[in-house]
Amino acid sequence: MTLIKSISGIRGTIGGQTGDNLTPLDAVKFAAAYGTWLKNHTKRDKLTVVIGRDARISGPMIQSLVVNTLVGLGIDVIDLDLSTTPTVEVAVPLEKADGGIILTASHNPKQWNALKLLNEKGEFLSGADGAKILEIAESEAFDFADVDSLGEVTRNDAYMDIHIDEVLELPLVDAEIVKQAGFKVVVDGVNSSGGIIIPKLLEQMGVEVVRLYCTPDGHFPHNPEPLKEHLGDICKLVVEEKAHFGIVVDPDVDRLAFISDDGEMFGEEYTLVAVADYVLSKTPGNTVSNMSSSRALRDITQKHGGTYEASAVGEVNVVEMMKKNNAIIGGEGNGGIIYPELHYGRDSLVGVALFLTYLAEKKMSVAALRASYPQYYMSKNKIELTPQIDVDSILVAMADKYKNEQVSTVDGVKVDFAEDWVHLRKSNTEPIIRIYTEAHTQQKADELAVRIIDEIKAVAGI
C-alpha cells in the first residue's frame, strides 16, 4: 500500500486502486475533508484557500481536482499554479486567506504526490487538527454548496516574485555586498519549481548563475532527495565551472543543500549550522532543531551564548518548540531553514540569501567555512517495513536495551552516548524505519549504524 494518511496530510503514488494509492477519488475526498474542517473551524461565511504545486507530472491533474473540490464546497481559491512550499506559506497571511494547500510529495520520486495542509497563518496544521481532518475523510460527512454558492478561482502567478521581494527586504540580507563579491553559483533545481525561483533570487542579488536541471517539467533527472549519492553531476559541474559553490533544492524548495567550491558536499546538516552562525552573530538568541539533527547546531548556539533545544521530528514540532523557546532561527538537519523574521516554515530562499550575505561578509571559500565548524558525521539509513514487522515492540526493546544510557522516547527512540548518538523512528512519509547516527568520524557513525541495524533485525527476527 502506497497511500499514507497522517496528521500532516495525505501522500501516495499516482494510479492504482482507490484507498491504496493517491487516485483522483482519494485527492477529492481528502480535499473535501480539509475544506469541511476549515468551514467548521473558522465559522466564517466565505472562505479563501491558497493553492500551489511543484512541477510533478501529476501536479496539474491533482491541482484541478483539489481546486474544484474546494469550489464545490463554496470556498474561493487563489491559485498560484507552479509554486513552492514556502511561497504558499508566505502567500496565505499576505492574502489574509483561511488556509493553504501545497501539492507536492517533497523529496519523494516523481510517481508520488501529496496534499500538504496549512492553517490561516501559513503554518502546518497541529496534530489535533490533522486528526480531525482524517476523521472527516473517513466519515465522508461532506456538505457541498448549491449552484449559487460555488466558490470562485482567482489565478495569481506573481507570488514567486513577491516571495523573493520579501526575502530581499529582510534586515540581515544584503544584496549589495553579495553583488560586490562577484559570486558564480551552480543551481540544481531537479527540474521542478526551484529551477525557476532560486536562479531568479540569485540574479537579483547579482550572482552569476549556471543552471543544471532547471526545466520545470517534473522529470526528475536523479532521486530528488538532496543527498550526496544523488548529486554527482552538480559536484562535478561546480569544479568544472570554477564556481564558488553549488545549490541544490528538493522539488518543493523547502530543503537546501550546498556543494563546496572543491566539489564536496557542504553537508545538508551544516546548511542550518552555517545560516544560524550568521544570524546568531548579528542577533544572539536561542535555536531549535529536531532530534535527528546534528549536535553542531548546539555547539554553535552555545558559542554565541544562546540555548539550544531539540524537538520531535516534523516541521510542526520544530515550530511549536521555537515559539515556546523564543528561538530566532531553527529548522531541521535535512537542510530546512526556519527563520521567523519572515515566516514559520522551512524556506530555501531565506537560507540561500542569508548564506550568500554571510559568505560575502566573511570573504572566505565555502570549503574553508565548512572546515571552521565542529566536525560531526552522520549515517542515515532505513529498514523497509513489511506487515510482519512490529515497529512499536522493536522500539520498546531497543529503549530497554540501552536504558542505562540517556534515552528519549518523545519521538521514536533516541539514545545519546557520550561521543555519539542514534535515533530510531518510524517515518511519517514512507513505510520505513529511519536509523540516524552521528559521531566525530564517518567510520564511527557507520559502525554504530551497522551495529544498531543488526540489533533491530535480531529483535524483529528478520
From TrEMBL:
The keyword Zinc does not apply. Residues 397-454 form the Alpha-D-phosphohexomutase C-terminal domain. Its cofactor is Mg(2+). Keywords: Isomerase, Magnesium, Metal-binding, Phosphoprotein. It comes from the Bacteria. SUPFAM superfamilies: Phosphoglucomutase, C-terminal domain (SSF55957), Phosphoglucomutase, first 3 domains (SSF53738). Its EC number is 5.4.2.10. GO terms for molecular function: phosphoglucosamine mutase activity. InterPro entries: A-D-PHexomutase_a/b/a-I (IPR005844), A-D-PHexomutase_a/b/a-I/II/III (IPR016055), A-D-PHexomutase_a/b/a-II (IPR005845), A-D-PHexomutase_a/b/a-III (IPR005846), A-D-PHexomutase_C (IPR005843), A-D-PHexomutase_C_sf (IPR036900), A-D-PHexomutase_CS (IPR016066), Alpha-D-phosphohexomutase_SF (IPR005841). Residues 8-142, 165-263, 270-376 form the Alpha-D-phosphohexomutase alpha/beta/alpha domain. The keyword Phosphoprotein applies. Belongs to the phosphohexose mutase family. PANTHER family: PHOSPHOGLUCOMUTASE (ALPHA-D-GLUCOSE-1,6-BISPHOSPHATE-DEPENDENT), PHOSPHOHEXOSE MUTASE. This is Phosphoglucosamine mutase. The lineage of its organism: Bacteria, Pseudomonadati, Bacteroidota, Flavobacteriia, Flavobacteriales.
